[in-house]
Design brief:
Layout: E1 4-9, H1 21-31, H2 33-46, H3 48-53, E2 59-66, E3 69-74, E4 80-85, E5 88-99, H4 103-170, H5 175-210, H6 231-241, H7 243-263, E6 269-280, E7 290-301, H8 309-355, E8 359-362, E9 365-368, E10 371-379, E11 384-392
Antiparallel strand pairs: 1-11, 2-5, 3-4, 5-6, 6-7, 8-9, 10-11
Helix pairs in contact: 1-4, 2-4, 4-5, 4-7, 6-8, 7-8
Length: 393
Protein backbone atom coordinates (compact mmCIF):
# COMPACT_ATOMS: atom_id res chain seq x y z
CA UNK A 1 0.00 0.00 0.00
CA UNK A 2 1.49 3.32 -1.07
CA UNK A 3 -0.24 6.49 0.01
CA UNK A 4 0.17 9.35 -2.39
CA UNK A 5 -0.86 12.92 -1.84
CA UNK A 6 -1.54 14.83 -5.04
CA UNK A 7 -2.42 18.46 -5.55
CA UNK A 8 -4.19 19.15 -8.80
CA UNK A 9 -5.56 22.52 -9.91
CA UNK A 10 -9.08 22.61 -11.35
CA UNK A 11 -8.84 26.28 -12.18
CA UNK A 12 -5.80 28.53 -12.09
CA UNK A 13 -6.43 32.04 -10.85
CA UNK A 14 -3.48 34.21 -11.93
CA UNK A 15 -3.17 37.43 -9.93
CA UNK A 16 -2.47 40.69 -11.70
CA UNK A 17 1.12 40.74 -10.37
CA UNK A 18 1.89 37.29 -11.80
CA UNK A 19 5.00 37.05 -13.95
CA UNK A 20 5.27 34.90 -17.06
CA UNK A 21 8.42 33.32 -18.47
CA UNK A 22 8.68 35.78 -21.43
CA UNK A 23 8.51 38.71 -18.99
CA UNK A 24 11.25 37.19 -16.86
CA UNK A 25 13.41 36.67 -19.95
CA UNK A 26 12.94 40.33 -20.93
CA UNK A 27 14.10 41.40 -17.48
CA UNK A 28 17.16 39.18 -17.66
CA UNK A 29 18.01 40.37 -21.18
CA UNK A 30 17.85 44.01 -20.12
CA UNK A 31 19.39 43.99 -16.65
CA UNK A 32 21.72 40.98 -16.36
CA UNK A 33 25.18 42.38 -15.48
CA UNK A 34 27.06 39.64 -17.33
CA UNK A 35 25.19 40.41 -20.54
CA UNK A 36 25.59 44.18 -20.11
CA UNK A 37 29.33 43.74 -19.53
CA UNK A 38 29.56 41.72 -22.75
CA UNK A 39 27.69 44.47 -24.61
CA UNK A 40 30.21 47.04 -23.34
CA UNK A 41 33.06 44.79 -24.48
CA UNK A 42 31.51 44.52 -27.92
CA UNK A 43 31.14 48.30 -28.21
CA UNK A 44 34.84 48.57 -27.48
CA UNK A 45 35.63 45.95 -30.13
CA UNK A 46 33.55 47.88 -32.69
CA UNK A 47 35.98 50.80 -32.39
CA UNK A 48 38.75 48.68 -33.94
CA UNK A 49 37.23 49.28 -37.38
CA UNK A 50 37.46 53.12 -37.44
CA UNK A 51 40.94 52.86 -35.92
CA UNK A 52 42.03 50.60 -38.78
CA UNK A 53 40.35 52.81 -41.40
CA UNK A 54 42.40 55.75 -40.12
CA UNK A 55 45.37 54.27 -42.00
CA UNK A 56 43.77 55.33 -45.29
CA UNK A 57 43.38 58.96 -44.25
CA UNK A 58 45.98 61.73 -44.08
CA UNK A 59 47.51 62.85 -40.80
CA UNK A 60 47.43 66.62 -40.21
CA UNK A 61 49.49 68.26 -37.46
CA UNK A 62 49.56 71.97 -36.62
CA UNK A 63 52.31 73.48 -34.49
CA UNK A 64 52.82 76.81 -32.76
CA UNK A 65 55.83 77.96 -30.75
CA UNK A 66 56.71 81.29 -29.10
CA UNK A 67 59.29 82.55 -26.63
CA UNK A 68 61.80 85.21 -25.63
CA UNK A 69 65.45 85.20 -26.81
CA UNK A 70 68.36 87.52 -25.93
CA UNK A 71 71.09 87.82 -28.61
CA UNK A 72 74.62 89.37 -28.29
CA UNK A 73 76.80 89.12 -31.40
CA UNK A 74 80.50 90.10 -31.58
CA UNK A 75 81.21 91.34 -35.11
CA UNK A 76 84.62 91.11 -36.91
CA UNK A 77 85.31 94.80 -36.24
CA UNK A 78 84.97 94.09 -32.53
CA UNK A 79 81.67 95.86 -32.31
CA UNK A 80 78.91 94.30 -30.28
CA UNK A 81 75.43 93.83 -31.63
CA UNK A 82 72.70 92.87 -29.14
CA UNK A 83 68.93 92.52 -29.30
CA UNK A 84 66.02 90.95 -27.47
CA UNK A 85 63.94 88.82 -29.81
CA UNK A 86 60.44 87.49 -29.40
CA UNK A 87 60.51 84.54 -31.82
CA UNK A 88 57.41 82.60 -32.82
CA UNK A 89 56.78 79.89 -35.37
CA UNK A 90 53.57 78.53 -36.82
CA UNK A 91 53.29 75.63 -39.22
CA UNK A 92 51.15 72.76 -40.54
CA UNK A 93 52.25 69.32 -41.76
CA UNK A 94 50.19 66.88 -43.82
CA UNK A 95 51.34 63.23 -44.14
CA UNK A 96 49.74 60.64 -46.40
CA UNK A 97 50.69 56.98 -46.70
CA UNK A 98 50.49 55.85 -50.32
CA UNK A 99 51.53 52.22 -49.89
CA UNK A 100 52.43 50.24 -46.77
CA UNK A 101 52.47 46.68 -48.05
CA UNK A 102 48.65 46.33 -47.80
CA UNK A 103 48.95 46.70 -44.03
CA UNK A 104 45.98 49.06 -43.75
CA UNK A 105 43.69 46.88 -45.89
CA UNK A 106 44.51 43.78 -43.89
CA UNK A 107 44.15 45.67 -40.61
CA UNK A 108 40.64 46.71 -41.65
CA UNK A 109 39.73 43.13 -42.55
CA UNK A 110 41.08 41.85 -39.21
CA UNK A 111 39.06 44.49 -37.34
CA UNK A 112 35.88 43.58 -39.24
CA UNK A 113 36.32 39.88 -38.53
CA UNK A 114 36.94 40.70 -34.86
CA UNK A 115 33.66 42.61 -34.76
CA UNK A 116 31.78 39.68 -36.32
CA UNK A 117 33.42 37.25 -33.89
CA UNK A 118 32.58 39.53 -30.98
CA UNK A 119 28.95 39.73 -32.01
CA UNK A 120 28.69 35.94 -32.04
CA UNK A 121 30.36 35.84 -28.62
CA UNK A 122 27.76 38.33 -27.41
CA UNK A 123 24.99 36.15 -28.84
CA UNK A 124 26.48 33.12 -27.15
CA UNK A 125 26.58 34.89 -23.77
CA UNK A 126 23.01 36.08 -24.34
CA UNK A 127 21.85 32.52 -24.98
CA UNK A 128 23.63 31.35 -21.84
CA UNK A 129 22.00 34.09 -19.76
CA UNK A 130 18.55 33.28 -21.16
CA UNK A 131 19.12 29.58 -20.48
CA UNK A 132 20.10 30.42 -16.91
CA UNK A 133 16.96 32.55 -16.63
CA UNK A 134 14.71 29.74 -17.87
CA UNK A 135 16.43 27.28 -15.54
CA UNK A 136 16.05 29.62 -12.56
CA UNK A 137 12.39 30.26 -13.44
CA UNK A 138 11.50 26.59 -13.72
CA UNK A 139 13.52 25.67 -10.62
CA UNK A 140 11.49 28.15 -8.56
CA UNK A 141 8.25 26.69 -9.87
CA UNK A 142 9.38 23.09 -9.37
CA UNK A 143 10.78 23.66 -5.88
CA UNK A 144 7.68 25.62 -4.87
CA UNK A 145 5.45 22.77 -6.01
CA UNK A 146 7.69 20.27 -4.23
CA UNK A 147 7.55 22.34 -1.05
CA UNK A 148 3.75 22.48 -1.15
CA UNK A 149 3.58 18.74 -1.77
CA UNK A 150 5.95 18.01 1.13
CA UNK A 151 4.02 20.35 3.41
CA UNK A 152 0.76 18.60 2.56
CA UNK A 153 2.46 15.26 2.97
CA UNK A 154 3.58 16.23 6.49
CA UNK A 155 0.01 17.18 7.37
CA UNK A 156 -1.23 13.80 6.17
CA UNK A 157 1.53 11.97 8.04
CA UNK A 158 0.59 13.83 11.23
CA UNK A 159 -2.99 12.67 10.81
CA UNK A 160 -1.79 9.12 10.14
CA UNK A 161 0.38 9.24 13.27
CA UNK A 162 -2.54 10.47 15.38
CA UNK A 163 -4.83 7.81 13.91
CA UNK A 164 -2.24 5.11 14.58
CA UNK A 165 -1.92 6.20 18.21
CA UNK A 166 -5.67 6.05 18.63
CA UNK A 167 -5.77 2.59 17.07
CA UNK A 168 -2.89 1.53 19.36
CA UNK A 169 -4.87 2.65 22.38
CA UNK A 170 -7.82 0.66 21.03
CA UNK A 171 -5.62 -2.40 20.53
CA UNK A 172 -6.03 -2.54 16.72
CA UNK A 173 -2.30 -2.10 15.94
CA UNK A 174 1.03 -2.88 17.56
CA UNK A 175 3.65 -0.43 18.89
CA UNK A 176 5.69 -1.27 15.79
CA UNK A 177 3.04 0.35 13.60
CA UNK A 178 3.19 3.48 15.77
CA UNK A 179 6.99 3.60 15.50
CA UNK A 180 6.75 3.26 11.75
CA UNK A 181 4.25 6.13 11.57
CA UNK A 182 6.56 8.32 13.66
CA UNK A 183 9.52 7.40 11.44
CA UNK A 184 7.56 8.31 8.32
CA UNK A 185 6.64 11.65 9.91
CA UNK A 186 10.27 12.35 10.79
CA UNK A 187 11.30 11.55 7.24
CA UNK A 188 8.53 13.80 5.95
CA UNK A 189 9.74 16.68 8.14
CA UNK A 190 13.28 16.20 6.84
CA UNK A 191 12.00 16.20 3.26
CA UNK A 192 9.99 19.34 3.98
CA UNK A 193 13.07 21.10 5.36
CA UNK A 194 15.13 20.07 2.32
CA UNK A 195 12.39 21.35 -0.01
CA UNK A 196 12.28 24.66 1.86
CA UNK A 197 16.05 25.05 1.57
CA UNK A 198 15.98 24.23 -2.15
CA UNK A 199 13.18 26.76 -2.68
CA UNK A 200 15.12 29.50 -0.89
CA UNK A 201 18.26 28.81 -2.94
CA UNK A 202 16.32 28.75 -6.22
CA UNK A 203 14.69 32.11 -5.39
CA UNK A 204 18.08 33.68 -4.71
CA UNK A 205 19.47 32.31 -7.99
CA UNK A 206 16.40 33.70 -9.74
CA UNK A 207 17.12 37.15 -8.28
CA UNK A 208 20.77 36.91 -9.33
CA UNK A 209 20.04 35.99 -12.95
CA UNK A 210 16.87 37.96 -13.65
CA UNK A 211 17.52 40.95 -11.42
CA UNK A 212 14.34 40.89 -9.33
CA UNK A 213 12.85 38.58 -6.74
CA UNK A 214 10.27 36.10 -8.06
CA UNK A 215 6.60 36.89 -7.59
CA UNK A 216 3.73 34.62 -8.59
CA UNK A 217 5.09 32.66 -11.53
CA UNK A 218 2.88 31.19 -14.22
CA UNK A 219 3.46 27.95 -16.10
CA UNK A 220 5.36 28.15 -19.38
CA UNK A 221 4.21 26.61 -22.63
CA UNK A 222 6.09 23.81 -24.36
CA UNK A 223 8.87 24.70 -26.78
CA UNK A 224 8.72 21.50 -28.81
CA UNK A 225 7.08 23.38 -31.66
CA UNK A 226 10.21 25.55 -31.97
CA UNK A 227 12.69 22.67 -32.01
CA UNK A 228 13.83 20.82 -35.17
CA UNK A 229 11.88 17.72 -36.03
CA UNK A 230 14.77 15.25 -35.89
CA UNK A 231 18.10 14.90 -34.15
CA UNK A 232 19.96 15.20 -37.46
CA UNK A 233 18.15 18.45 -38.24
CA UNK A 234 19.05 19.78 -34.80
CA UNK A 235 22.75 19.00 -35.36
CA UNK A 236 22.66 20.65 -38.79
CA UNK A 237 20.98 23.74 -37.35
CA UNK A 238 23.63 24.02 -34.65
CA UNK A 239 26.45 23.73 -37.21
CA UNK A 240 25.02 26.64 -39.20
CA UNK A 241 23.56 28.87 -36.47
CA UNK A 242 25.28 28.21 -33.15
CA UNK A 243 27.10 31.44 -32.16
CA UNK A 244 30.06 29.56 -30.68
CA UNK A 245 30.71 27.82 -34.02
CA UNK A 246 30.20 30.99 -36.04
CA UNK A 247 32.46 32.95 -33.69
CA UNK A 248 35.20 30.31 -33.95
CA UNK A 249 34.89 30.49 -37.74
CA UNK A 250 35.44 34.26 -37.68
CA UNK A 251 38.44 33.70 -35.40
CA UNK A 252 39.92 31.52 -38.13
CA UNK A 253 39.40 34.39 -40.60
CA UNK A 254 41.13 36.76 -38.19
CA UNK A 255 44.11 34.43 -37.84
CA UNK A 256 44.45 33.88 -41.60
CA UNK A 257 44.30 37.61 -42.32
CA UNK A 258 46.84 38.25 -39.58
CA UNK A 259 49.34 36.21 -41.65
CA UNK A 260 49.07 38.76 -44.48
CA UNK A 261 49.29 41.55 -41.92
CA UNK A 262 52.59 40.17 -40.64
CA UNK A 263 53.94 39.74 -44.18
CA UNK A 264 53.28 43.44 -44.92
CA UNK A 265 56.36 44.32 -42.86
CA UNK A 266 58.51 42.72 -45.58
CA UNK A 267 57.16 45.04 -48.33
CA UNK A 268 58.27 48.63 -49.15
CA UNK A 269 56.39 51.64 -47.82
CA UNK A 270 55.71 54.84 -49.77
CA UNK A 271 54.52 58.09 -48.18
CA UNK A 272 54.37 61.81 -49.00
CA UNK A 273 54.59 64.76 -46.63
CA UNK A 274 53.71 68.40 -47.25
CA UNK A 275 54.45 71.20 -44.81
CA UNK A 276 54.18 74.99 -44.59
CA UNK A 277 55.51 77.27 -41.85
CA UNK A 278 56.31 80.86 -40.95
CA UNK A 279 58.99 81.94 -38.49
CA UNK A 280 59.37 85.45 -37.07
CA UNK A 281 62.47 86.76 -35.24
CA UNK A 282 64.11 83.36 -35.18
CA UNK A 283 67.39 84.43 -36.87
CA UNK A 284 70.00 84.93 -34.15
CA UNK A 285 72.31 86.67 -36.67
CA UNK A 286 69.75 89.49 -36.84
CA UNK A 287 69.85 89.54 -40.64
CA UNK A 288 66.26 88.44 -41.32
CA UNK A 289 63.05 89.31 -39.55
CA UNK A 290 60.81 86.48 -40.81
CA UNK A 291 61.02 83.32 -42.90
CA UNK A 292 58.28 81.51 -44.85
CA UNK A 293 58.78 77.88 -45.89
CA UNK A 294 56.77 75.31 -47.86
CA UNK A 295 57.82 71.82 -48.93
CA UNK A 296 56.54 68.57 -50.43
CA UNK A 297 58.62 65.46 -49.79
CA UNK A 298 58.17 61.89 -50.97
CA UNK A 299 59.70 58.98 -49.09
CA UNK A 300 60.24 55.32 -49.91
CA UNK A 301 61.39 52.84 -47.25
CA UNK A 302 62.49 49.38 -48.35
CA UNK A 303 63.18 46.87 -45.56
CA UNK A 304 66.40 44.95 -46.14
CA UNK A 305 67.13 43.21 -42.86
CA UNK A 306 65.32 43.56 -39.55
CA UNK A 307 67.04 40.80 -37.64
CA UNK A 308 64.37 38.25 -38.55
CA UNK A 309 61.49 39.92 -36.68
CA UNK A 310 59.05 40.01 -39.61
CA UNK A 311 59.77 36.42 -40.62
CA UNK A 312 59.25 35.23 -37.05
CA UNK A 313 55.97 37.15 -36.77
CA UNK A 314 54.77 35.54 -40.00
CA UNK A 315 55.56 32.03 -38.75
CA UNK A 316 53.85 32.84 -35.47
CA UNK A 317 50.70 34.02 -37.29
CA UNK A 318 50.61 30.79 -39.29
CA UNK A 319 50.78 28.69 -36.13
CA UNK A 320 47.99 30.76 -34.57
CA UNK A 321 45.90 30.14 -37.69
CA UNK A 322 46.47 26.39 -37.34
CA UNK A 323 45.41 26.60 -33.69
CA UNK A 324 42.26 28.51 -34.64
CA UNK A 325 41.23 25.83 -37.13
CA UNK A 326 41.70 23.14 -34.48
CA UNK A 327 39.66 25.18 -32.00
CA UNK A 328 36.88 25.47 -34.58
CA UNK A 329 36.83 21.70 -34.97
CA UNK A 330 36.75 21.25 -31.19
CA UNK A 331 33.84 23.69 -30.85
CA UNK A 332 31.92 21.82 -33.55
CA UNK A 333 32.43 18.53 -31.72
CA UNK A 334 31.35 20.08 -28.42
CA UNK A 335 28.26 21.56 -30.04
CA UNK A 336 27.34 18.22 -31.58
CA UNK A 337 27.76 16.49 -28.21
CA UNK A 338 25.64 19.14 -26.48
CA UNK A 339 22.87 18.84 -29.09
CA UNK A 340 22.78 15.04 -28.93
CA UNK A 341 22.82 15.08 -25.11
CA UNK A 342 20.02 17.64 -24.94
CA UNK A 343 17.97 15.74 -27.52
CA UNK A 344 18.33 12.40 -25.73
CA UNK A 345 17.65 13.99 -22.34
CA UNK A 346 14.50 15.68 -23.66
CA UNK A 347 13.17 12.49 -25.21
CA UNK A 348 13.99 10.52 -22.06
CA UNK A 349 12.18 13.05 -19.90
CA UNK A 350 9.07 12.77 -22.07
CA UNK A 351 9.09 8.98 -21.69
CA UNK A 352 9.57 9.27 -17.92
CA UNK A 353 6.66 11.71 -17.62
CA UNK A 354 4.37 9.48 -19.65
CA UNK A 355 5.31 6.49 -17.48
CA UNK A 356 4.12 8.12 -14.22
CA UNK A 357 0.55 7.70 -12.94
CA UNK A 358 -1.67 10.41 -14.32
CA UNK A 359 -4.66 11.99 -12.64
CA UNK A 360 -7.22 13.40 -15.03
CA UNK A 361 -9.69 15.80 -13.49
CA UNK A 362 -12.58 17.26 -15.40
CA UNK A 363 -14.59 19.56 -13.19
CA UNK A 364 -15.35 17.30 -10.20
CA UNK A 365 -15.10 13.98 -11.97
CA UNK A 366 -11.87 12.15 -11.20
CA UNK A 367 -10.52 9.49 -13.50
CA UNK A 368 -7.57 7.55 -12.10
CA UNK A 369 -5.03 5.79 -14.34
CA UNK A 370 -2.94 2.96 -12.90
CA UNK A 371 -4.78 3.02 -9.55
CA UNK A 372 -6.94 0.60 -7.63
CA UNK A 373 -8.23 2.69 -4.73
CA UNK A 374 -9.18 6.27 -4.03
CA UNK A 375 -10.55 7.23 -0.64
CA UNK A 376 -11.68 10.75 -1.56
CA UNK A 377 -10.86 14.27 -2.53
CA UNK A 378 -11.59 17.74 -1.22
CA UNK A 379 -11.81 20.99 -3.16
CA UNK A 380 -10.03 23.82 -1.37
CA UNK A 381 -11.05 27.52 -1.41
CA UNK A 382 -8.10 28.34 -3.70
CA UNK A 383 -9.49 26.10 -6.43
CA UNK A 384 -7.10 23.22 -5.78
CA UNK A 385 -8.19 19.64 -5.30
CA UNK A 386 -6.34 17.58 -2.71
CA UNK A 387 -6.53 13.85 -3.34
CA UNK A 388 -5.67 11.50 -0.47
CA UNK A 389 -5.52 7.81 -0.05
CA UNK A 390 -4.42 7.07 -3.63
CA UNK A 391 -3.16 3.48 -3.96
CA UNK A 392 -1.06 2.42 -6.94
CA UNK A 393 -1.23 -0.99 -8.63
Amino acid sequence: MLAVVAIVGLTTLVPCEAESLPEALVKAYQTNPQLNAERARQRGTDENVPQALAGYRPQIVASLGAGLQAVRNLLPDNTIQSATLRPWTIGVTVSQTLFNGFKTANSVRVAEFQVLSGREALRNVGQGVLLDAVTAYMNVMANKALYEAQRTNVQVLREIQATTKRRLNAGDVTPTDTAQAEARLSRGLADLNAAEVALGISKELYTQVIGAAPTELTAASSVDRLAPGTQTAAIDTANHEHPAILGAGYDVDVAQTSIKLAESSLLPQVSVQASASRSVQTDSSLTTNSTDQASVLGQVNVPIYDGGTAASQTRQAKEVASQSRLVLERVRNQSRTAVVSAWISNEGTKIALNAHPIIYIYHRKILIAHTTKLEGYKQMPDGLVRVTGLTLK
